[in-house]
Amino acid sequence: MKKQLTIAYCVLLFTSACERKAAENKVEPHVALDTIEQKVSYVIGFNTAQQLHKEGYSLDAEVTSIAIADFNNGVEPRMSKEEMRAAMTTFQTELQERRQELLARDTERNSAQGQLFLSENGKRENVVTTKSGLQYEIVTPGSGATSEVTDRVYVNYQGSFVDGEVFDSGENVDFIVNQVIPGWVEGLQLMNTGAKWKLFIPPALAYGESGSGKVGPNATLIFEIELLRIEKSSE
User: Is 70 in the active site?
Assistant: First the structure.
């Protein structure tokens, strides 16, 4: 974080100066993006600002410009090293607290949404709920063999959240059955080759409270899976 912020300061020095000049002349700021240094600077600055915005923070462009100008002009820092360290420690503490608050909020929201969805979904005529809590719906029945945990399977799939947002998909993807989340492990072993199913997976059979990538904590997931073929294990 510290390294990102330091680099972002350099980018924001230039953009801040452009913004001040634009405000004086009432024209749109122009930023040259010709060299690789300019392009990388813009990307780093934009991504850093975007990430800080997600965390509820923003940098003061004017103060940032002054700090960079002081360094470039050999001016003594306006804060001591101890003051700088204290400021960054406070910042990191506040950032961690906000992350924990957001995590708790998302966990509670996802749990409530998932429980409501699974409760209503389980009432549908074509949906089967297993002992583990996994729900499935047969879209197209298959007639081929079923897999075991050590077999390699080839599938087409699409993953979405309960609100319909698609977060992942793949075609002719292969893996060993026991290398995926528990909901997939269970569901794949119930499917015949050639089948297309929808799996409705509660958090305990997906990524749980930790989440993963785009999947938030305690998220209920929906996967549409087509089992293309199976390579039986030699074990």
Answer: no
